[in-house]
């Protein structure tokens, strides 16, 4: 059976979840939109999204998936966050240029603990009818017998069909190819869907559009082995208006964990949203009503900056709590409006002896992470975008040392939006 997306006029959903998911921009593909809509009208639906623990934190690119689970919970359905403690031992090859490095059991356990903290911050877990469930596919995948898996599950998979998936074909066309280990990933993800259906009554798998082939395979497996109808729903993979991949910044990944990215920098990431993305991101990454998101997104000129501040504060509140978000907003106000230094700005420590001797300005900016190289730092200074303690630097060779510190720190600024405090170690 080949699952197809359904051609359906926009705005014809009747269930509250599907109506809001569509209005906010979460609906990209659905295996049977009308039947899923009807199922949600008939009663609570249990749906899941998987998160492979490839790092000890999710990044903001995964926030779309968490927001989908939150939306499911908001409308009285039950979300399941599946941690891939088992599938992480293989690694999802979907649209990757090369194979992931294999991780140790200890690394996987550490990563799972970090991801769980973010999930618990953004959803309500418990035993209530719409409380989220946290599951780990290692609980069943680690116990599988290979021969039994081949006989019971493998017989239902067509290699020809698996080779037709875009995620597989893109790797086969590359020089490195696809390992047999990775080729098994789709089978295990399909097994997860069936197992979650049997354990928790899960009838919906959601994910990014890159997971479409894996999701359809799971639906087919449940149909073939258990004669049940289940559903798949994917959200679009996001890019910014300028085409950049969502979840990346000039400094690297935008992590959800405050241990990996200070809350202020997370707030700043959203504050720096491109004008054309404000309305769309408000709908995807905040709980503000859709109408309010549209109103704010329509602002122009200087007014759009106020909308960006609202986006930054609301998105940060979901990830780090309201108090931390308000503190980050106040820090920004003091830095950008009052020109004051703030202790909650991101901090970089450098050896005390080096700071006492001093650095040429261009090198200090590179060392502090405000420029990716000495050459970029020089260009920043020549262009008038570099400041020390809010005063413009005009000489790229100017020596900056602890003698220039204010309250024991050097405040470095790149343009109006990027600031960091440099302090001595110890």
TrEMBL record:
It comes from the Bacteria. Its EC number is 6.1.1.1. GO terms for biological process: tyrosyl-tRNA aminoacylation. One of its GO terms (cellular component) is cytosol. A motif ('KMSKS' region) lies at residues 245-249. It is an enzyme of class 6 (ligase). A motif ('HIGH' region) lies at residues 53-62. L-tyrosine binds at residues 48, 185, 189. The keyword Iron does not apply. Keywords: Aminoacyl-tRNA synthetase, ATP-binding, Cytoplasm, Ligase, Nucleotide-binding, Protein biosynthesis, RNA-binding. ATP binds at residue 248. It catalyses: tRNA(Tyr) + L-tyrosine + ATP = L-tyrosyl-tRNA(Tyr) + AMP + diphosphate + H(+). One of its GO terms (molecular function) is tyrosine-tRNA ligase activity. It is found in: Cytoplasm. InterPro entries: aa-tRNA-synth_Ic, Rossmann-like_a/b/a_fold, S4_RNA-bd_sf, Tyr-tRNA-ligase, Tyr-tRNA-ligase_bac-type, Tyr-tRNA-ligase_bac_1. Homodimer. HAMAP family: Tyr_tRNA_synth_type1. Belongs to the class-I aminoacyl-tRNA synthetase family. TyrS type 1 subfamily. Catalyzes the attachment of tyrosine to tRNA(Tyr) in a two-step reaction: tyrosine is first activated by ATP to form Tyr-AMP and then transferred to the acceptor end of tRNA(Tyr). This is Tyrosine--tRNA ligase. The gene is tyrS.
